[in-house]
Design goal:
Number of helices: 5
CATH superfamily of the domain at 13-121: Gcn5-related N-acetyltransferase (GNAT)
CATH topology of the domain at 13-121: Aminopeptidase
Helix content: 25-40%
Oligomer: single chain
Bound molecules: coenzyme A
Number of strands: 7
């Protein structure tokens, strides 16, 4: 398996994901939501978001997306992001709470944008949770519209954003 470190002093590598990574991706995702979601959502909304995530859905989706994971030196998945090239969407970006605000989210989104450029995606879209809007804005994304997602009867306000690449 090929691994590339962007900075040789940084032990976290970003690599292609495989279906066997699904468990680690799932665990990082749940921890990330629980740590990050509470700034803008109620405990009930965070729980509805968590319940929507499943290990098997990652396993099924990985082969169909440009799916990247960030792996620490001790082989733990500490972040991930995925491009859906069909609908030109940044489908996931999550950083484990241990690595928040260390620049990993930026590395992941830049890696996804590089993939999008290779695939000649001109405008990249995403559905952003409110807690992440400030991050996306810093990365150059702008709000197209806001809407409310219904997750099993729980209303979750979200923001549709996009960026010209
Ligand atoms: C959003 C998320 C991916 C950002 O990852 P991160 O690794 O902490 O971000 P970085 O460290 O690369 O930050 C890059 C810049 O954005 C800023 N930033 C990071 N998170 C931010 C936030 N939630 N709001 C505002 N600014 C933020 C950083 O301070 C940094 O600014 P600087 O370059 O001026 O220093 C991460 O907070 C996360 O996983 N959140 C929970 C899951 C989630 O909501 N995912 C998005 C689903 S739509």
């Amino acid at each position: 398996m090929r691994r590339t470190a962007i900075d040789s002093n940084d032990p976290i590598v970003i690599r292609k994901a495989w279906p066997a990574d699904s468990r680690g991706i799932y665990e990082a995702c749940i921890a990330s939501i629980r740590a990050g979601g509470g700034t803008h959502y109620s405990p009930e909304q965070v729980e509805a978001w968590v319940q929507r995530i499943s290990e098997s859905s990652f396993e099924k989706k990985i082969p169909h997306l440009d799916f990247l994971v960030a792996e620490s030196a001790d082989s733990k998945i500490v972040g991930f992001a995925a491009l859906n090239p069909t609908n030109r969407e940044l489908e996931y970006i999550y950083v484990h709470p241990d690595k928040l605000k260390t620049g990993l989210g930026r590395r992941l989104i830049e890696a996804i944008e590089a993939r999008a450029n290779i695939r000649r995606v001109r405008r990249l879209h995403l559905v952003g949770s409110l807690n992440a809007v400030g991050f996306y804005e810093l990365m150059g994304y702008r709000t197209d519209r806001t809407f409310v997602r219904d997750l099993n009867g729980v209303q979750i306000p979200c923001t549709m954003m996009s960026k010209e690449l």
